[in-house]
Amino acid sequence: MTRRHTKVNHLQRVTFLDTGPRRGEFHAMLSRSVQLVLHYDGAGFSGWQRQPGERTVQGVLEAAVSRLCGEPVAVAGAGRTDAGVHARGQAAGVRVPEKWNAAALRRSMNAILPDDVWIAAAHEMREEFHPRYSAMSRRYGYFVGTDDFAASPFRRTRELAWTRPLDVALLSEAAGAVTGRHCFRAFSVKGTAPERDEHFCTVAHSTWRERDGGLTFEIEADRFLHHMVRFLVGTMLDIGGGRRPVSDMNELLHHEDNSHVSQPAPAHALFLERVEYPRDLYLRAE
Length: 286
Known about the structure:
This protein has about 290 residues and is α+β, with helices and mostly antiparallel strands.
């Protein structure tokens, strides 16, 4: 076992213990580690994280798996999506009794989950797997509709309907400026990360892609800060629309707060597309 996996194993055990529906509930019978790959419509949720009195993705999943297992079971996510943000590649981790193989768990949970959540795949994972700390990267997509049909009720809940001109070359230049390792403090909500956090993220991929009916911003990084993608998109759209210079992207990467970025783009057009893990954490695909 590598040092990385040893560290993750420790974190995994602490997290699953501390975030369960009842503190201290962690029995030896909960012995199988399963990764769930999730699709969900974020419109009906107050985000991912469990909150008292609110309908959340984590809360709905925990209710389903706890019902199947006959006792409270915690579900941990690869990251927290905001209220209104969708997913078709969110990853979650759960520990269940040995009798529940990944395929059976997926079928049974899908049978009782509400219509706005669906488990696309389930994988049995090694003991040291943790959905957050084991992740190598996450990928998001933001969808902007630029044709007349973007205002259709079948598209406007999943795209930002945009009616003003956009310079794709400027958008591309702005996206390229954030590739690499940078401090994204200016593109995050103050106080949502610990003060000791330096707010550095390594962006492996950042680009605007033209598609039928509009544009898609694609970004992949080792981590994301709260509202980071939405702040980036909002600022880039202002650049592409000629309301601020493209040089602002480089300057903002050196700012200490978000007072100079544009308003964050609306949540409803943002999708968590994929979470990547080391292949050696997978026992087998189900």
